Amino acid sequence: MTTAFPLETYTTRLAAVADLLTRQHIDAAVLTPGADLRFLLASDLDTHERFSALVVTPTSLRVIVPSVDAGALRDGIPGRAGVTVVPWNDGQDALALAVGDLPEGATVAVSGEMPANHVLALQDRGLTTVNATAVLRDVFMVKDTAEIDEARRAGRAIDTVHRQVPGLLRAGRTEREVADDLERLILVEHEVVDFIIVGSGPHGADPHHDFSDRVITEGDIVVVDIGGTLDTGYHSDCTRTYVVGGVSDDRADRLAAYAVLQQAQQAGLDAAKPGITAQELDAVVRGVIAEAGYGEYYTHRTGHGIGLSGHEEPFIIAGNELPLAEGMAFSIEPGIYVPGDWGARIEDIVVLTASGCEPLNVTTHDLVATVAGTGTQA
C-alpha cells in the first residue's frame, strides 16, 4: 500500500534515527514491521511469525529478513538507501544476525509493535530493551512537507464522506445499514476502511461503539466517527454528530450541552500552537466542559497523533508534558457522553503551524439535522 516518497526522504529519516541514537547513548534500534518500517523504508513487509527487523546503529543500517522475502527489499528503498539486506534461512539464528555484534548489557530500542516473544528473546541475550516509540518520537512526530500534504489529502477524503452522511441517516434504518453505506463511500476515497462508528441514541454515549442492528428513530442524536487509509499509508479520522429530524423541545438540554462541546473544541483549536504542552492543551479543552458542569461526561483524552499510524504520538492527555511543535499532526476531539441516554463528539485533525494550527477537516461543527435524507443545521 505504501507509496514511496523521493529517496532522499528516507535517507534523511534514517540518518535522523542514527543521530538520535548517538545523542541518547543507545546502541541500536531494532524496528519490526509496522508503522516504523513504513516510515523509514516505505515497506509493508509482513513475514508473519518469522523475525524481521530494520537494525539501526550509529554507524550501520541493516534489514534482517527471511530469505523468501528478501528480493522485494533489495529492489525497493532499502537497497537504494544504503541499507544492507541480510537474508536468513529457516533454522538459522536470525536474532544473532540482528544483535550478535552487540555487547552484553547493550541498550536496544525496540518497536512498540514488536511481538513479546522477540522482545523476551532479546532480553535473554543480556540486552536492555527500551521502547523505541519513546526514544525516536522526535523523528516521527514532526511531519515533513510531503507528510503534511498527505495529511491534508486524507482530511479532504474523509470530509467528502461526511458531507454525504446526512443523506444516510433516516428514521427506520439500522446503524448497520448506515455503516454498510459508509464503508462503500470511504473506499471511494481511500484504499482501506480503518473503522466506522455509528452510535445512535444511547449508543452515542459509548465512545468506541461501532454499529449494531439498532433501528435509528426520529430525534436520535448520532455520533459518526470514520477513518480510512490512503494509498500512501496515511490515515484519516474525523467525527461529526448529527440529529435525525431535529431535537424535540423537551430535550433542549442536549442543545445546550452540544453548544458547550463546540466551545470546548474551538478553545482547543485556538490554543493549539507550538510551545503549549500536550497536557496544557488537554486542560484547556477539558476545562470548558468541566466549568459548564459536564466534566464527569468527558471520559477520554483530548487527542492523539496521526500519520502512518491511526493513533501515535503526541497524545493530548493529562500527564504528558511534551511541548507541541510545528509540524505535529493530531486530533482535537472532545466529547460529552451521558450513559444510557446520548452522546456527542467533534473531532478535527490539525497540523501545528508556526503560529497556531491548521484544521484539516472543514465540514461544519454544528449539530446537523437530517430531514428526509438532507442535512440542515439544528
- Give the % helix: 25-40%
Q: What radius of gyration results from the CA coordinates?
A: 23 Å
CATH architecture of the largest domain: Alpha-Beta Complex
Q: Give the SSE order as H and E letters.
A: HEHEEHHEHEHEHHHHEEEHHEEEEEEEEE
Low-confidence stretches: none
Shape: elongated
Write down how many β-strands occur, each being a DSSP E stretch of 2 or more residues: 18
CATH H-tier superfamily of the largest domain: Creatinase/methionine aminopeptidase superfamily
Structural class: alpha+beta
In the CATH hierarchy, what is the class of the largest domain? Alpha Beta
Classify the fold: give the CATH topology of the largest domain: Creatine Amidinohydrolase
| Total number of helices | 12
Spatial strand arrangement across the major sheet: 4-3-2-1-5-6
* Strand residues, percent: 15-25%
Number of domains: 2
Distance between the termini: 40 Å
Largest sheet: 6 strands, mixed
Instruction: Estimate the mean pLDDT confidence.
Output: 93
What do these coordinates show?
By secondary structure, this protein is α+β, with helices and mostly antiparallel strands. The protein folds into 2 domains: 7-140, Creatinase/prolidase N-terminal domain (Creatine Amidinohydrolase, Chain A, domain 1, 3-Layer(aba) Sandwich), CATH 3.40.350.10; 142-377, Creatine Amidinohydrolase, CATH 3.90.230. Helices cover 33% and strands 24% of the residues. It contains 12 helices and 18 strands. A hairpin with a 4-residue loop joins strand 15 (348-352) and strand 16.
